Amino acid sequence: MGPEGQTRLAAARVAIVGCGATGSALASLLARAGVGYLRIIDRDYVEPSNLQRQMLFDESDAAESLPKAIAAARRIRGFNSQIVVEPHATDLVPDNAADLLGNVQLILDGTDNFETRYLINDYAVSEKLPWIYAAGVGSYAVTMNVLPGETACLACIFPDSPKAMVETCDTSGILNSAVNLVASIATTEAMKLIVGARNQLRRTLLSYDVWSNEHAQVSTARPRDGCRACQQRDFVHLEGEGRPPISMCGRNSVQIHERQRPIDFDEITRRLTPHGTVKHNEFVLKFWHDPYELTLFPDGRAIIKGTNDPAIARSLYARYVGA
Ligand SMILES: [Zn+2]
Description:
By secondary structure, the protein is of the alpha/beta class. It has twelve helices and 14 strands.
């Protein structure tokens, strides 16, 4: 890349959505490469079971249930204090997409769900902002570059979310080496974009199974005629509002969105203490009421573990946090 490339990396502004396994690897590689500004958006907190693959975190982060965005920013500052890392422990939704994805030159996908990816795709296509899709399940990894106005977008390739990816995610887990492979490929493409090597960018959907060694590429050089997003410019995911609670991938849990409810952790700790074990730090409050575990964030968002039923999660939230 030379000094000019390194200068461009230092001036670059990148958003990473999702900081689990893929996001950890993306953020780590870009931060060590000297990308000057990283915005890390993640709605989740660190748990011991994450440590098999989420390489920015350690056991102390899990013991504190630190939000992943916060833990990632801390770890990155420890190895590169010269760059700016801006953590957001929040869920990317249509309401906050312009705030969270604006004022960057590139968006990277570290999410685990198609709902968020379609939202990223709508925002990026509407703003003509490049983004890189990256996903993995089991030993299988897949990635594509989306260059609005040039290549196909995510909705060109997957008009609807691919069911196989959604259904297997819960049960099959992910091999850490498959994640790091796809993150390495996506990071390299990001670097090419940042330093201006556009003719070196891959214009295919690349898939690789590290266990069977099967790999394939499908051309993404042209948008699909009639694509809802990039051709008809119908941004349904960006316009979506009032989304229902989402069941989260890989866990027996439900997330409740309550963005208009600032929470006073001290007050709620006093209120919940008679009903179970409560503990909180600056970023997160945890409440155990067998068989449920409720994790509450300062903006009122909650993750309720111990059920996949949104109705049960809603009623627990109403009872212990407020209706
Ligand atoms: Zn498209």
